[in-house]
Amino acid sequence: MQHVKVPQDRIGVLIGDGGETMREIEDRAEVRLDIDSETGSVAIDAVGDPVSGMVAPDIVQAIGRGFAPDEALSLLDGEMRMFELIDIDEATRNKNDLQRQKGRLIGENGRTRELMEELSGAEVVIYGTTLGIIGQPEEVEVVRRAVGMLLDGAPHGAVYSFLERKHNELTRGFDVNQA
């Protein structure tokens, strides 16, 4: 049995219309979810395939961190798909700095976040003090590096160039670890 804490405002999304999302997670991941809507605590108990059951906490956490249920459930679509959270708060000194860094990651009208998605192939969500990524390992790595560059203060143009270069490498099948 595993436990995941979900923010109060995301409990409804996790449960879904008439419990629809919760049932879909339970069916597809072969788990039982016990959701305490008062505390946001979700107990996850594997009842079927243990490998699917191991993905369930990531699905619940991804929904809790702002992903749509279908994006979170895509973690079951291939054994290589992964979910990663980056704590933006760790790279900031105070609330103003956190807001500034979130603004840099989102970009004007959400353009930076969109480009990270388009050019890496991963799903990217910024919620609260975290940035979540769902994708193949090489896609997640590209976003992780782009986020690191932005948090370190790199100009947006340099990050966009990096993303375009990695996009070309990914679509041509080059090794992503070559800088």
Automatic annotation (TrEMBL):
<dbReference type="Pfam" id="PF22891">
    <property type="entry name" value="KH_PNO1_2nd"/>
</dbReference>
<dbReference type="InterPro" id="IPR055211">
    <property type="entry name" value="KH_PNO1_2nd"/>
</dbReference>
<feature type="domain" description="K Homology">
    <location>
        <begin position="1"/>
        <end position="65"/>
    </location>
</feature>
<dbReference type="InterPro" id="IPR019964">
    <property type="entry name" value="KH_domain_protein_archaea"/>
</dbReference>
<dbReference type="GO" id="GO:0003723">
    <property type="term" value="F:RNA binding"/>
</dbReference>
<keyword id="KW-0694">RNA-binding</keyword>
<protein>
    <submittedName>
        <fullName>KH domain-containing protein</fullName>
    </submittedName>
</protein>
<dbReference type="Pfam" id="PF00013">
    <property type="entry name" value="KH_1"/>
</dbReference>
<dbReference type="InterPro" id="IPR004088">
    <property type="entry name" value="KH_dom_type_1"/>
</dbReference>
<dbReference type="InterPro" id="IPR036612">
    <property type="entry name" value="KH_dom_type_1_sf"/>
</dbReference>
<feature type="domain" description="K Homology">
    <location>
        <begin position="80"/>
        <end position="152"/>
    </location>
</feature>
<dbReference type="InterPro" id="IPR004087">
    <property type="entry name" value="KH_dom"/>
</dbReference>
